[in-house]
Write a structure and sequence with these properties.
It holds the Pfam family MreC. By secondary structure, the protein is an alpha+beta fold. It contains two helices and 14 strands; from the N terminus they run ααββββββββββββββ. It folds into two domains: 108 residues; 182 residues, Beta Barrel (Thrombin, subunit H). The radius of gyration is 42 Å and the shape is elongated.
Length: 301
Amino acid sequence: MKPVVRTSLTTVGLVAGGIFLAALNVGDVPFRPDRLAGGVMVGLQQGAFAIGRGVSGTFHAVGTLRDLRREHELLLGELEEYRNLRGRLEQLEGENARLREQLGFAARAQAPVVSARVIAHEASQYFASFTINRGRRHGIEPDQTVVAIVSGREGLAGKVASVSLNTSVVLPVFSAESYVSGRLDTSRHEGLVQGSGNRDTPLVMHYVPRGARNEIQYQDMVVTSGLNSIFPEGLPIGRVERVDALSFEPSLEISVTPLVEFSKLEYVFVITARSGSGQSMHTEGGSMTSEGGAPSERTEL
């Protein structure tokens, strides 16, 4: 029951009680209108006080509710700001970790490399090339090898297709126009790795003898062979996903998942040494070293 209704009923009860008590005393004490009026006035005053107190309490409660609502809205705003700050902090921490990984590789690499950032992709759902922020002015030339760092080790990303003064276009290994001389790192069988034209579809390694099927295991690493190729020897390309021996083909067809995740690619390194000068790349503890190459020259990201 609401406070105002309750106090009104109380007032009516007090007045009725005063009249009743006056009626009980009629037989013993002469009826006195002033006493009756006084009793009624006392009841009315008490009722009015109770009503005033109820109304005052109602206004106080409304004010308190308004203050609580305002405080609630302020807290919600602070909570949203905190969430935004936390998300931004996590984003910055991830970016710093990636930069440290890139810079750590640049410091360890013994081959001459130029670091670069991916600044554009070809305008299509499955881009067949991407652009980096380094060009002729930075020592970049067509057909140079492009690698990316994946979990602390390098993986073949592609080759430089064209160069301008300050930018270069890179042809990735998944492009249908990409052909790389490859080698199974464990069994040492060689073949030709071709792109599928789709970054989400495995590469295909051709010309591996059918007799090598039992020597190939799932997740075996495929690396560059360096034979008749612009790519240095020993760069990881990807891992074996599936081996097919088609009845009408004299060789195996091996599906290879690229080591580089092109949908997340942000930074790359361009190897400025030519493989034709006796350059051979291999990894030691997750870093790239060269044999027969020039001293390392690097630029900052």
